[in-house]
Design a protein that fits this description.
167 residues, alpha+beta, OB fold (Dihydrolipoamide Acetyltransferase, E2P), 2 domains, five-stranded mixed β-barrel, elongated
């Protein structure tokens, strides 16, 4: 009696698995083939851009603005680790974007000229000569060009929680 019950159970299980196999395969194919326009890095963010660079510059003052989302065209990424990116914003300025707590990285090459959306915190920052030289070294600048950096820069700093990069 027990053997018959077990046999019926496995026959029913096999029939259920056959019914679920094809739909499961089709589901996974459909999900993997969806066209996502952006690769995402760090925290999940949406592609909504709620701020403009000029508005952020106007409002930042001496405080940190949180949940700022900006867009621009990537002009350079850290060639060593992908731990920062520079993007040209629509207003024409260049924004250096670093990543919160060194917690994620972007591709080191192949994304130049692509649209990026960043979301995080904006603040005014004085970037020391040593740090500017470090960034120049990471970017692969020559020793001669690195030594030309002799003054700190006062710029809009940006720490991203998440980044979207156009595929």
């Amino acid at each position: 009696m027990i053997a018959k019950t077990i046999a019926i159970y496995f026959v029913n299980l096999e029939q259920k698995m056959k019914k679920l196999f094809l739909p499961s395969i089709l589901f996974f194919i459909l999900v993997s083939c969806t066209d996502r326009p952006y690769g995402h890095y760090g925290a999940a963010i949406t592609d909504e851009v709620n701020d403009s660079y000029s508005a952020v510059m106007k409002n930042v003052g001496n405080r940190e603005l949180e949940n700022v989302s900006l867009t621009g065209e990537i002009i350079q990424t850290c060639a060593k680790k992908g731990c920062w990116l520079k993007m040209k914003v629509p207003e024409g300025d260049t924004l250096m974007v670093r990543f919160r707590d060194y917690g994620f990285f972007v591709p080191r090459q192949g994304v130049e000229g692509k649209k990026a959306i960043v979301k995080g915190s904006a603040f005014m920052d004085t970037v020391a000569v040593e740090m500017l030289r470090h960034y120049a070294e990471d970017a692969g600048e020559s020793e001669k060009d690195i030594l030309k950096i002799t003054e700190p820069e006062y710029v809009l700093g940006f720490i991203a929680d998440g980044v979207l990069i156009e595929k």
